[in-house]
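At your convenience, could you comment on the folded chain following this short note?
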Amino acid sequence: MNIRNNRQAFTLIELLVVIAIIAILAAILFPVFAQAREKARSASCLSNQKQLGLATLMYSQDYDELMPLTTSNIDGQWLTNFWHMVPPTWSSLQTHVAVRGSNFVWANTIQPYVKNYGILACPSAPEFRVGLARFTYSSMLARPEKTSYTINGLLQAYPQAGMNAPADLPLIWEGRGKSAPLGGNLQNPLLICNDGAQPCVYNTSCSGTTNGGTGSAFGIDGSIWIHNKGMNFVFADGHAKYLNVKAFLAQCPTSAQYTMPACTFRTSAGAAAGFNICSGSPANPTWTGSWPMWGLY
């Protein structure tokens, strides 16, 4: 007796329908997976910044409650507008003024409290190589470290007791955007200190050319949408927080509104100016106003 096999192969139409369904599911799920991975990287980044914030406060406790130097004074000048090396030993141009001053800035001086340069790098930020002569990537004396985070330069050697609202005062943040400069670090925003013979500390009197009476801010190297359209901050009381950038920017003051009780800290024109203006006002250690953006958390 013959047994007939009634099984039939899929038709071309059926195969195309299955492939289309798989493609639709992939289009839906892949962005979800990408967001989940970025969420994990954001959590790691926030942990890094939390450790850096606590290390900075530990440093401050050991130095009469003064915040660490965010710049250095070498050969009678404050290097407020200079990249500093991280670590200070890697560049082969060790006689350069900014290289010699790098021993004294925060990314290096807090190392005894963390003993790990690796936490200066955000896992979401791609490496960025600085195009300056002292960044001698082809003739390194040690391994340069990636640094994704910037410190609030207005807190240069500033006393903790002088901060009106440390819980609202940004201390460390992703001030270069989605970027990890290799072997160098900047403060952001920064004080202008033209007199190398005088201290470089935030100065509310703003009297003429007195150090610390004016400030500026650096632009960014990458997108400020770092972690799923947001970025991480550490505040001067030590707590760390993620902020959505779109909501953050929507409540920024305008340039005309961006004035402080005695000083004006304005950024230069450019694509990043609005963001730097937004981050600048609460960066003022003596600010007592109520900016709506700080109701976000």
About this structure: Residues 254-281, 287-297 have pLDDT under 50 and may be disordered.
